[in-house]
Amino acid sequence: MKNIKKLFFLFALFFAETALAQHQNHEKTATTKAETPNLGIVDEGVKKQLNELLLAYFQLKDELVAGRRDNANTKGKLFLETLAKVDTKKMTAAQAQFFTTHQQKLAYNAQNIADNEEVDAQRAFFSRLSADMKAVIMGFKANSQKVYVQHCPMAFDNSGASWLSAENKILNPYYGDRMLKCGIVIAEF
């Protein structure tokens, strides 16, 4: 009977790992196809500005990982300042249209993070900000370093949420020290 239980456990583990690998591959493929439009050649100055925005995003993420709402307010404001410096005049019409669509949502969510006094509310706005940030950075191919897309399936009552990270190591911005390691890498670019 013990051998049957062990065999069943190994069988279940194998299928769980296979399903996870298929999910990660699907996520990577879906992300690439759905969110990476062909924006053509991007001005190097624009790429530099967007990379600075990515660095401001990472700083904001780190404050949410630590659960420091006051610092997240400050980093939300820094993100907004960096976002305002992105020069759409150096973009093609298609690039400017793509960026402006996401810029409005980025600004809205960053402003709500900057103004909010509750870290859980900041984290909810960060989830939305992360989706647009991923689309912009991937669309413009603006990252000067490897970026990891990470996902916590338990965030927001098991709805799940993703974020970007400069490192492969999982540090969950949605749970902080409550569940710091909850998540997996689903893509990298």
In terms of structural class, how would the helical and strand content be classed? mainly alpha
Rounded Rg: 18 Å
Task: Please report which band the strand proportion falls in: under 5%, 5-15%, 15-25%, 25-35%, 35-45% or over 45%.
Answer: 5-15%
Largest sheet: 3 strands, antiparallel
CATH class: Mainly Alpha
Order of helices and strands: HHHHHEHEE
> How many separate domains?
1
Q: Could you give the count of β-strands?
A: 3
Oligomeric state of the chains in view: single chain
Strand order of the largest sheet: 2-1-3
Give a structural overview.
With 189 residues, the protein is mainly alpha-helical. The protein has one domain (44-188): Four Helix Bundle (Hemerythrin (Met), subunit A), CATH 1.20.120. Helix content is 65%, strand content 8%. The protein has 6 helices and 3 strands; from the N terminus they run αααααβαββ. Strands 2-1-3 form a 3-stranded antiparallel β-sheet. Helix 2 runs antiparallel to helix 3, helix 2 runs antiparallel to helix 5 (119-140) and helix 4 packs antiparallel against helix 5. The chain is globular. The termini are far apart. The model is unreliable at 5-34 (pLDDT under 50).
